[in-house]
Structure formats: structure tokens, C-alpha cells
Design brief:
Blueprint lengths: L2 H13 L2 H8 L3 H15 L4 E4 L2 E4 L1 H23 L7 E4 L6 H12 L5 E4 L4 H10 L4 E4 L12 E15 L10 E2 L8 E3 L8 H13 L2 E3 L7 H9 L4 E6 L13 E5 L3 E11 L5 H10 L11 E2 L5
Parallel strand pairs: 3-4, 3-5, 7-11, 8-9, 8-10, 12-13
Antiparallel strand pairs: 1-2, 5-12, 6-10, 6-11, 6-12
């Protein structure tokens, strides 16, 4: 349906005269008459009856008017949804329990005027493809793993480094420790069934294991976070790594322990990725938020892979 004809119909219905509608729309009265005639032909009904005082809606015109107004409102919303600065900023955070999701929550509190649409994509390759296609505006990822350079049209800035923690059950030999070193973890059974080969987090943990002589087991099905926590709670030998800001909740009787890892402190390097041609003004607001000093990039005393 021709939206300009619908807009002209609404203007004429509200003005009551084609001449007044023409003045409102900045077109000729002849153009108004042609648009109305074309709309009547498309609908197969008469919308107006000409009178000495102007134009009066027919019964069909009265029935069509509220729907015509709805069409115009829907069109305005559709245009607004894709106009930079008016649609929501769409950001990938990997997982809703992980640190990037918490960072976006802080950003939303600091900038309530910015509307956000938060999504979770599988890996860095999927995120880069989505950024390049315009499906998302930005993504938090660890970049760039060996053999995977970013395309020239993708920008990246180190956003923040997240320290790792060791998560154990109450019966684990290290459960009472306030902190452990990577060297102390050599020979321990570190179980991470959620690691998927070829992803950026797999590359990170492969380098971590190689750097400190760790054994990270990825065998067994990944049933999600809750079954993993249940298994750790009942085990005297299994442990896993979690990010310091990863949100975890477990029953009180699980007695799980979150233990800092130091000397050096392994940190997971989160970067913000976006397309260099993306005009969304909220992207600049998000980048300024990351540069505000609230989110630190580690230096001395920390470890991260050389590729990061």
C-alpha cells in the first residue's frame, strides 16, 4: 500500500477539504486528488463524498481511518528503529552470567538514556560476522587468537582484564586456601567441560595450561552451570576456573569456595569490537565509559597470552 496515499487520506480526512490537505502536505490540490483516487482504486471503495463545504468521509472511509493512522504510526516506528541514535545499541556479551553482561549493566545505570539490546553469540567468528553484517553493533571478545587476525574493517580496544578464580568443593585439598599460585595447580584436576575447540576461550585456556604445566580436562558432556556446581560440591579432587565477575549461585549446603589465583594472576582479556563504519552514537558513549577508569587493564603481576 502506498504510504504517501495513506498519509494524504488521513490529512484530507482531518482537514475536511482537499485544498487544506494540499497546503499541509506542501503539494498541489491535484496531487491530493490523484493520490486519493489511486487509494480508492486499490481498495475498491469510495473514501470521500464531495460536498459544497469540502470532502466528507463515506462509511468505508470512516472504517478505514483508524487503520490508516495505525499504518502511519507503524511506519514511523519502523523508520525510527533503524535510525542511528534512535534504535537500541545491540551488543553481544558471550553469556549473561559473565563479566561483559555485568559491565553493560553498570553502563546502563550510568547512562539510562541509552537503550540496549543484549545478545549472546557463540564465538568470536560469529561475533565478527554479525558485526560486519550489521546484525549487532559491538561485541566483547578475547582477540586475536593465533591464526585469526581481525578484518581491516573491525576495530578493537582492550576493555578490561578479568582475574581468574579457582572454584572447588569443600572437600578439595585447596578449599581452605585464601589464594593459590598457578604453580600450585600443576597436577590438580581442573575440569572445564564447556570448552569448545576452536573458540577464543579454548585458545586462552590452552595457553594457560601450557604456560604453567596445568592439566585442564574437557571430557564429558556439558550439562550447564548447575550440574557442574553439583559435581564440584561432591568432589574431593575436581576444581574449575571461573572469572572473578562470573555470577554464580548455589545451595548453601554445597559449600563451594572461590579462591584467588596470584603470582602471577591469570586474567582473561576482554576487548570491545565494532565496525569502523558504524555511526551509532551510543557506541562512542560506551567506549568513553570503558575509558573512564572504572574497568582496569592489568599490567605487572598478571598473565595473559601473548596473542592478546
Amino acid at each position: 500500500m502506498d504510504l504517501e496515499a495513506v498519509r494524504t487520506f488521513v490529512a484530507a480526512a482531518e482537514a475536511g477539504r482537499f485544498q487544506d490537505a494540499a497546503a499541509e502536505l506542501s503539494v498541489t490540490q491535484q496531487a491530493v486528488s490523484k493520490r486519493i483516487a489511486a487509494l480508492e482504486k486499490a481498495l475498491g471503495v469510495r473514501l470521500f463524498t464531495r460536498t459544497a463545504r469540502g470532502a466528507r468521509l463515506t462509511v468505508d472511509g470512516q472504517a478505514f481511518l483508524p487503520h490508516a493512522r495505525d499504518l502511519l504510526r507503524s511506519a514511523a516506528r519502523a523508520v525510527g528503529s533503524v535510525r542511528p541514535g534512535r534504535r537500541a545499541l545491540r551488543v553481544d556479551v558471550i553469556g549473561r552470567r559473565l563479566a561483559p553482561a555485568g559491565l553493560l549493566g553498570d553502563f546502563r545505570k550510568a547512562h539510562p538514556e541509552v537503550e540496549l539490546d543484549v545478545v549472546t553469540l557463540f564465538d568470536a567468528d560469529a561475533a565478527v560476522d554479525a558485526i560486519r553484517s550489521g546484525t549487532i553493533d559491538a561485541s566483547f571478545r578475547a582477540v586475536t587468537m593465533p591464526g585469526r587476525q581481525l578484518p581491516d574493517d573491525i576495530r578493537a580496544v582492550r576493555a578490561f582484564d578479568e582475574p581468574l578464580q579457582l572454584l572447588t568443593g569443600p572437600g578439595h585439598p585447596l578449599a581452605a586456601a585464601r589464594a593459590v599460585t598457578p604453580a600450585q595447580l600443576a597436577g590438580q584436576r581442573i575440569w572445564m567441560p564447556g570448552i569448545v575447540a576452536g573458540t577464543e576461550w579454548a585458545a586462552y585456556y590452552d595457553d594457560l595450561a601450557a604456560a604453567f604445566g596445568l592439566t585442564i580436562e574437557v571430557t564429558g558432556p556439558d550439562f550447564g552451570t548447575e550440574p557442574l556446581l553439583d559435581t564440584l560440591a561432591g568432589s574431593g579432587s575436581l576444581a574449575t576456573f571461573v572469572g572473578e565477575q562470573t555470577r554464580l549461585v548455589w545451595p548453601a549446603d554445597h559449600g563451594l569456595r572461590r579462591i584467588a589465583v596470584r603470582d602471577p594472576a591469570p586474567v582473561y582479556p576482554h576487548s570491545l569490537l565494532w565496525h569502523r563504519g558504524n555511526p551509532h552514537p551510543a557506541l562512542a558513549v560506551l567506549r568513553d565509559h570503558l575509558r573512564s577508569g572504572r574497568h582496569a587493564v592489568s599490567a605487572a603481576g598478571s598473565w595473559t597470552p601473548a596473542w592478546a
